[in-house]
Amino acid sequence: MKNRPRTLRFAAVATVVMAAAPLAGAAGFSLASPTIKPGSTLTEAQVFNGFGCTGKNVSPALKWSGAPSGTKSFALTVYDPDAPTGSGWWHWVVYNIPASATELAEGAGTADGKGLPAGSQQGRTDFGAPGFGGACPPPGDKPHRYIFTVYALKTDKLDIPEGGTAALVGYMINANKLGSASFTAKYGRKKQ
């Protein structure tokens, strides 16, 4: 009985160390954009052109650094958890980005993917097609959050069937994730 508190202390310390271990390799991993500042409001350039929205639908420039050791590729997603669907809304899904890449240029998210690093692929968004789909929340909703996330992966390629959904890509990303970095921006539309 005298050793019990010591054992519990050891177990608590071991739990904290084990929980922190997976994050240690990703501690310096960061994502930034010269186009969008974290917490800012998206501009008309990043707003969808359709569904009642009249934006330019241009993907922002994104840069990342400090990827964890062992990174063999990257994936990137843009997700709106506030969309009134019950499951959010996927605005952009890119995977098989080579480990040598550290950025995506502004406008790289065209449907044909020509502006992406060689070998990169885009998944189908909730707009029904590949490529960047900008913000377009319902008029009158509180501003929605758009979460931009880059993932460092332990595999050089995700085998996704043609036409694979964003949820399937997300599943494969999480099964191969070494670390991630993200920032959030907002956008809302006034009631008409």
Features:
three-stranded antiparallel beta sheet; 2 helices; alpha+beta; 192 residues; globular; 28% strand
Structure explained in plain terms:
It is a single chain. This protein is an alpha+beta fold and 192 residues long. The chain is 16% helix and 28% strand. The chain has helices spanning 4-24, 166-175, and strands at residues 30-32, 49-50, 53-54, 62-65, 73-80, 89-98, 103-104, 121-122, 144-153, 177-187. Strands 8-6-5-9-10 form a five-stranded antiparallel β-sheet. The chain has a three-stranded antiparallel β-sheet with strand order 1-4-7, with no helix packed on it. The protein has a two-stranded antiparallel ribbon with strand order 2-3. Strand 5 and strand 6 (89-98) form a beta hairpin. The longest helix is centred in the N-terminal third of the chain and has 21 residues, at 4-24. The protein is globular. Residues 4-25 have low confidence and may be disordered.
Please give a quick description of this structure.
With 192 residues, the chain is of the alpha+beta class. The chain is 16% helix and 28% strand. β5 and β6 form a beta hairpin.
Series of H and E elements = HEEEEEEEEEHE
**Structural class given helices, strands, pairing?**
alpha+beta
| Overall mean pLDDT | 88
The low-confidence runs, each spanning 5 or more residues with pLDDT under 50, are 4-25
Q: Give me the number of helical elements.
A: 2
- Our measurement of the CA-to-CA distance between the termini, rounded to an integer number of angstroms, reads 70 Å
DSSP helix fraction: 10-25%
Main beta-sheet strand count, sense and barrel state:
5 strands, antiparallel
Strand order of the largest sheet: 8-6-5-9-10
Strand count? 10
What's the overall geometry?
A: globular
The Cα radius of gyration reads: 19 Å
Q: What percent of residues are in strands?
A: 25-35%
